[in-house]
Amino acid sequence: MSRLLLVSNRLPVTVKLESGQVQVARSAGGLATGLSGPHEQSQGLWLGWPGDVTRLGPTQVADLESRLLDLRCVPLYLTAAEVNRFYEGFSNRVLWPLCHYMLDRIPLHSRDWEVYRRVNQRFADKVAEHHQPGDTIWVHDYQLMLVPRMLRERLPDARIGFFLHIPFPSSEVFRTLPWREEVLRGLLGADLVGFHTPSYVRHFATSLLRLLGLEVDGDEVHDEGRTVRLGAFPMGIDAREFERLAETPAVLAEAGNLRVRNPELKLVLGVDRLDYTKGIPRRLLSFERLLEREPSLRGKVRLIQVAVPSRTGVEDYARYREQVDELVGRINGTYGTVNHTPIHYLYRSIPQNTLVALYRGADVMYVTPLRDGMNLVAKEFVASRPDGDGVLVLSEFAGVAGELADALKVNPYDVEGMARALHEALHMPEAERRSRMGRMRARVLEHDVHRWVHGFLGALKAVTAPEEAPAARPATREELAALVSRLRKAPARVLLLDYDGTLVPLQPRPEMAAPTPELLSILGAVARVPGTFVHVVSGRPRTVLEEWLGQLPVGLHAEHGLWSRLSPDAPWEMIADLDLSWKPRALQLMRQYADRTPGALVEEKTASVAWHYRLADPEFGVQQARELRMHLAELFTASGLEVLPGNKIVELRPRGVHKGRIVERVRACTPADALLVAFGDDRTDEDLFAALPEGAVAVAVGQRPSRAKVRLRDPAAVLNLLRALH
Ligand code: GDG
């Protein structure tokens, strides 16, 4: 098992000073529990902040570190200013409200980005310091979004996973963040980026497309020659442990005590950190509304609201607390009697046993966040009900809503609707309660935190399993020098060069990519070197190649090898007689798609038709291209045509007409002992690479994954290499 390096803002421990002695206790949170197995078994490390230990003296710190080491934890200390600006300032005042769609809670002018970046760098440096080859690194949550890329820069071959515990918002919201590109790039340093739900994955993918122009293909995105996988991994809880606790005599006794004075009392339960995303005020209002509407329920139902103090250093939280206090006071004032208090409000953390007793004893669990990445409380309630009873009322904006179809769903902004749902929950017949709970329990018990951990780590391992040695990063200076020297030393050399994206950068419109005088001069000079044969192999029509490159002493191959002109004085020849009767229908269809996709255009070639969408709205363009591809495949694949997705192009052409076809033609007219080197940047060039004989070299240009063993960053790097040959 590969050693696991876990990285999170907080270490899963609580540090206490008891009569001058440092005490370190493991925290019992879901994440810590789920990860403790792999952490221990892999002899791994957990890196993070141990909490505020500034009051400890030097010997106490040494003591702390040795205790932490026993728990395989490595501390990273934050100064008070860092806690204030990195943790509270940027993470909690900017990223937290942003990801929960609460833009008006973000300060008008945040100045904490630099500190966020710096602390992320410190985390990355610390991890790099402890990293050994073969380790698996797993970075957690929004406080550390830049760490994956910072690590990738230091450890290019490391296996890195990232998981976001909070929602990834719609790209329309995410794009308001002034540092949006850096955050996206930060995450792309990982091999696997995980989220709780498929919607968050989709939002992230849309942000990549709109803000960085990166297209997600299935669940993969390619960036800087690397493949990054995206995935939904809904987090689970230690369900068996909650189930076990819920059956212990102590918990059962505590649950029984909840109704000692009034056995008929109906209990509604809310458990949250006191956070403005959790929707507590509207929850209270809906409870008030229920009492107002249903006088018969007064004195017979109680809401127990546990609100755990959280982020008390952030002003918004203090104001929120006042709002909640005031509402509780008002409702209790209106509907309380000398014998009955409608809302029991506990502003504190409660012991685990009491928590489970509340879950076990409640009639209705009331979970109404305005947004929540997942919400583990809902799952804990379900796991704590081995009796098979209890109703879950659940916000449709919690990530967990997608998993628990049998909860009563509510819109947490709709106070009236919530009051109705609460009424329904309190009156639900037992048979229905049991059948819903049964199905929810099956899901929660099976998809627990252990399964989540293994699912994520398994996916991470699969992404990073060593492949058939394709080049992931651009060739180093030394590697390039070796290739140049091999070419020079060969008895003869044949260069097969793609044009767009290889010799010239991609342009918004095809006609804008004409060769520069510099390019013409380099190609001419290389082609005149004795024993050197240059061929340009392009998808473009022969008229364009003729016009742009016709004067050079090079071979030209147009329309992916359909047409070839082996030297300036030779005629253009077509491969074979082709049936082109399908073209009018294909053109008509592509024009229809172009009409409804502003910016898209159709290009007609001899034996193929292409639909370009580089200038279309990025998201709509991709969507239309997908639809067009399916439409074309449905109509034409039976008639011997194939649909090719290219770089912002969808092309339809006869099967078997591809760049690979030219290899034999070129070899027939060049020395048998020549060294063949082919250069290309898109999928159509893979056909060329695949057709190369043994001993030939394929060079991929740009970032797309390729079978090529050598990679160059961009067309400028290709020209540099060509320059070195003459
Ligand atoms: C973030 C995301 C995502 C609460 N009060 C007490 C107590 N708790 C425990 C619960 C539960 C945990 O705290 C709260 O977890 P949630 O998932 O409900 O919410 P966040 O704290 O906001 O967590 C969230 C989660 O990360 C995981 O990815 O689900 O969406 O916001 O485990 O039991 N535990 C004890 N006493 C309390 O008073 N012992």
Concise synopsis of the structure shown:
This protein is α/β, with parallel strands linked by helices. 42% of the residues lie in helices and 19% in strands.
Explain how this protein is built.
This protein is α/β, with parallel strands linked by helices and 726 residues long. It folds into 4 domains: 4-232, Glycogen Phosphorylase B (Rossmann fold, 3-Layer(aba) Sandwich); 239-447, Glycogen Phosphorylase B (Rossmann fold), CATH 3.40.50.2000; 477-576 and 657-723, Rossmann fold; 583-654, Trehalose-6-phosphate phosphatase related protein, domain 2 (Alpha-Beta Plaits, 2-Layer Sandwich). It is built from 25 helices and 28 strands. The strands form 5 sheets. The protein has an 8-stranded mixed β-sheet, sandwiched between helices. Helix 11 links the parallel strand 11 and strand 12 (301-308). Helix 10 packs across helix 13 (352-361), helix 11 runs parallel beside helix 12 (315-335) and helix 11 (280-293) crosses helix 15. It starts with a strand and ends with a helix. The model has no long low-confidence stretch (mean pLDDT 94). The structure holds GDP-alpha-D-glucose.
